[in-house]
Design a protein that fits this description.
Blueprint (H helix, E strand, L loop, with lengths): L11 H6 L10 H11 L10 E8 L9 E8 L6 E7 L13 H11 L2 E5 L11 H15 L1 H4 L1 E11 L1 H16 L6 E5 L25 H12 L22 E6 L5 H13 L4 E6 L13 H17 L6
Parallel strand pairs: 3-4, 3-5, 5-6, 6-7, 7-8
Antiparallel strand pairs: 1-2, 2-4
Helix pairs in contact: 4-6
Length: 317
Amino acid sequence: MTTRHLIDPEILPLLDAFPPLSLQREMLPVLRQAFADQMELATIKAESVQREDRHIPSLKPEDAPIRCLIYRPSAVDAGSGAYLHLHGGGYVIDAPDSYDAQNIRLCEDLGITIVSVDYRLAPEHPAPAALEDAYAALAWMHGNAAALKIDPSRIAVGGESAGGGLAAALALHARDLGQYKICFQLLTYPMLDDRTGSEGHAGDPMTGEFVWTRELNQLAWSHYLGGAEPLAPSVPARAQSFEGLPPTWIGTASQDLFRDENIDYAQRLLNAGVPTELIVYPGAVHGFQLAGEAAVAKQYYRDQAEALARGLKPAED
């Protein structure tokens, strides 16, 4: 049985062009190189955005500095909002370069500073390496708020797929440590639960046929956890308490493997008193926003941009 008939016709060309993925350990270098070969930073046509490729300190002296792409409005007043972005790729592939055009657009449209983190990938660097890099970036943003002209009380976190899951993990970690404030979470079909797609947790057969399958999900989680016990914050869905987390926007897709874990996460946030908005995009699949001319992709961009703008709005005195 196929679910192709449930997919928005405007997204079907994207699916037809999407190559099959293999996350077997021996294939990861090949896959990463294929992604790298397709990466090309966008030409910034408007003079309103400045992009910087720089390295920031890691948490541990023995770890290498962390590469980030930083986007800043050319004209920005002190105390502006900021967004810490974490890219997707199942914790095993991809880089912030793939999200360059999106981050340029958000920076220009919202007038915010964006720091997109090139965190360490599994299986070479299993959890909590990626979370440590994300937390180091959050610490760096707080510590350099004056130089960046950002308000440290107005820093949001977010990302897509594994990046969304890592953002959720970062929010849990930052809450528990109590050192650095996060004001908002922007999560696009976040990868939250290592059980999804496992034996006994197959879920709705109407999800997960395209792009990101049950097999890929289980392989990615295996690489990421590296044999460690699946616990929060690395596995956000395993968290026992959701109280005290920042307001959250979750956008997911009706045919995405992560749909039900995303809905469950939103419900648990709501039950904990966390202001939460959930949108399930009909006829959409994992990566649907890459079909840029599709109406649902355009709606997604508007929704997430408006949500981020609201989330970064200065608190009323």
